């Protein structure tokens, strides 16, 4: 263990001051880990791209899990910052870590490559991003919930962290207020708002039966897949404990695409349209009620569509036209009462986007912001 730490520090990939952040006991546990085949095997897929500063912490949080039967497949997506070297050093010492190197192809293809490399005896599959963390008992808690209810999909609470500050992810925390076992989406349609894959444990036979695959070349690549996994599951279980720590980076450092970029707008709208279309198909087939669609429409009014409104003053006519036309297609038939009940800071502005001109929508936005500034002055 000490030799591995010396190698990492001597490589120049990590500053010496970072030693204090290397959780020595966790890495020692990772190196000495031996799988217990009496427990269901879990594959954890981690796409890696230029995250050397965070990679060791992310890997140590996974590799030192209390659960006794898992493998980690880290897919290096053409990193150029030393991440590849860190992975090579660790994989030479840690038997349950497999590293795959590929030319840069994006997070979707990295995840797909990791899934394809999964061991044939794995019963469960999960994902972690390479700058985030897993609490020590994440895998154990998710597997226990899945096994106790024969769930095809199990999800748990995400906690956001920035530096040393940790807080519940506001947009989804209420979904995980209590443990739930063996439910369907009809019983809790708001789960469609939990449109990420990294707080979830998928049963492998369910994943394969659904033919799930991440679409490449788009932003928000996991939104449709995550929603569809909830929609199609016969048995969903929820864990109220935190199972995932999602890192928020400093302004300007985040990997998130700037929201006023046209591609970002179109990709998120496409994901929302795909999810809405999947729900409508389920309604036509008699598999879910219209309440599921209504719940999803409230969600995107309150959250997803609101994300783009603050940038109206900085975008061009093409952006505004795209937002206008596709918002109307998504929620244009929602009644005024339901629209108001959905909530959301920019509801009135969003209505103006759909019904009026760009100039009028911007004036409405400016009026709202001035009123808020007066209240906080």
TrEMBL record:
Record-linked Pfam families: Glycos_transf_2
Gene3D superfamilies reported in the protein's UniProt record: Spore Coat Polysaccharide Biosynthesis Protein SpsA, Chain A
Ranges where the Glycosyltransferase 2-like domain occurs: 43-205
Molecular-function GO terms, alphabetical: hexosyltransferase activity
PANTHER family per the UniProt record, alphabetical: GLYCOSYLTRANSFERASE, UDP-GLCNAC:BETAGAL BETA-1,3-N-ACETYLGLUCOSAMINYLTRANSFERASE-LIKE PROTEIN 1
UniProt-recorded name of the protein: Unannotated protein
């Amino acid at each position: 263990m000490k030799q591995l730490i010396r190698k990492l520090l001597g490589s120049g990939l990590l500053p010496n001051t970072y030693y204090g952040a290397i959780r020595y006991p966790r890495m020692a546990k990772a190196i000495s880990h031996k799988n217990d085949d009496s427990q269901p095997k879990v594959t954890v897929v981690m796409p890696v791209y230029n995250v050397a500063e965070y990679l060791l912490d992310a890997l140590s949080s996974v590799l030192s899990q209390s659960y006794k039967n898992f493998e980690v497949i880290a897919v290096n997506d053409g990193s150029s910052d030393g991440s590849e070297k860190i992975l090579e050093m660790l994989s030479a010492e840690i038997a349950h870590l497999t590293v795959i190197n590929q030319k840069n192809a994006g997070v979707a293809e990295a995840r797909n490559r990791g899934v394809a490399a999964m061991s044939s005896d794995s019963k469960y599959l999960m994902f972690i991003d390479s700058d985030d963390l897993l609490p020590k008992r994440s895998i154990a808690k998710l597997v226990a919930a899945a096994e106790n209810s024969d769930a095809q999909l199990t999800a748990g609470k995400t906690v956001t962290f920035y530096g040393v500050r940790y807080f519940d992810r506001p947009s989804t925390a209420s979904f995980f207020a209590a443990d739930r076992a063996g439910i369907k989406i009809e019983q809790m349609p708001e789960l469609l708002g939990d449109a990420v894959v990294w707080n979830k444990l998928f049963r492998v036979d369910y994943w394969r039966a659904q033919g799930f695959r991440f679409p490449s070349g788009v932003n928000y690549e996991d939104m449709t897949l995550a929603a569809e996994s909830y929609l199609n599951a016969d048995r969903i279980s929820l864990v109220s404990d935190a199972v995932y720590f999602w890192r928020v980076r400093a302004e300007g450092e985040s990997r998130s695409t700037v929201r006023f970029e046209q591609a970002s707008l179109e990709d998120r709208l496409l994901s929302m349209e795909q999810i809405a279309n999947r729900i409508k198909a389920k309604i036509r087939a008699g598999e879910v009620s219209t309440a599921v669609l209504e719940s999803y429409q409230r969600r995107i009014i309150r959250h997803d569509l609101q994300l783009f409104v603050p940038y109206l003053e900085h975008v061009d006519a093409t952006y505004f036209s795209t937002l206008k036309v596709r918002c109307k297609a998504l929620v244009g038939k929602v009644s005024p009462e339901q629209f108001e009940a959905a909530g959301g800071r920019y509801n009135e502005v969003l209505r103006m986007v759909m019904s009026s001109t760009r100039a009028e929508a911007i004036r409405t936005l400016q009026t709202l912001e001035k009123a808020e500034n007066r209240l906080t002055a």
